[in-house]
Amino acid sequence: MATTAPEIKPHKVVSHNQWVEARKAFLAKEKEFTHLRDELSRQRRALPWEKVEKPYKFEGPHGTSSLGDLFGKRSQLAIYHFMLGPGWTEGCPSCSYLADHFDGMTIHLANRDVTLAVVSHAPYAEITAFKQRMGWRFNWYSAFGSDFNFDFNVSATTEEKSQKEVYYNYEMAPFPADERPGFSAFIKGEDGSIYHAYSAYARGLDILVGTYNWLDYMPKGRDEEGLRHTMAWVRHHDKYDDDYVVDANQEYKQPEVVQIKASGSSCCSGEHHD
After folding, report:
1. CATH code for 50-274?
2. pLDDT of residue 267
3. What is the pTM assigned to this prediction?
4. Beta strands of the chain (E only): which ranges?
5. Where are the domains of the chain?
6. DSSP label at residue 163
C-alpha cells in the first residue's frame, strides 16, 4: 500500500527570466493545441446524425418517460451513461468522481439549450438510494427493461458476459465490468424527431472530468504513474478520510452485486435482454 503523502522529485530550477522564456515557448504550443481543439470541435459538430427510431422508455422522478421527454423544454440532450448495474451495492467510483461535477453546471447548460440527464441500467429504486447517499440533485433515470443501454454499448448483454471481449468504443476489447461509461448527445428537430449526434467512451470522457483538468495544471499532474488501474486512487466522496491510502496493484473491480430492488409496476419493470 502506498500513501498519498507528497513525494517531490528533483526538478530543474532557473532564474525568473529563464522561467518566463520557457513559459512563453510553451505558451505557443498551448495556443496551437487550443486552435487544434477548436477545429476538432468544429469537425465533431459537422459529423452526420442518425435518426433515433426506437421508442425508448425510462423510469425517473416523474414516472415513465420517453427519450423525448428527457429533453424538457430544450432542443439538445446530453446523456451521461453512469455505471450502476442492477443489484449493485453502489455506483462505480470513477463515474461518481465524474458525476460530482454535474450539479453546478446544469443551470449553465440549460441556458445554452442543453438538458443534462444521467442514465443507468439499475432499477430506479436503486438509483434513488445511491443518489440520496451521494447528495446529488441532477436528473437520473433508469433504462432497466429497455434496449437503450444495450444499443449504446454501455451494458453487457447475457451473451457478452461470457465473452472475453465486448464491443466498446467502436471496437472489440476486454472490459472489467458489466456496465461501461459513456456520453451521448442528441438533438430534437422542430417536428419532434430525435437524432443521435455523437457518443464518446473511454478516454474520450477525460474532458468531462473537471478535477483532471485542474490536476493537469499541477506540478505532479494526475500522479497516476505506477498504478495498475489509473483511477485506483479515486473514492466515492464520502469515503476519503485521514487514513486514505492507494494500492498501486489494485485492478478495477465492479461493486458487489446483491438482489435487485424492484422499482414497482411500470413499462420498464422487466429485464429480458439476451
Report:
1. 3.40.30.10
2. 46
3. 0.91
4. 2-3, 50-51, 57-60, 63-66, 76-81, 114-120, 140-142, 166-168, 171-173, 182-188, 194-201, 245-246
5. 50-274
6. S
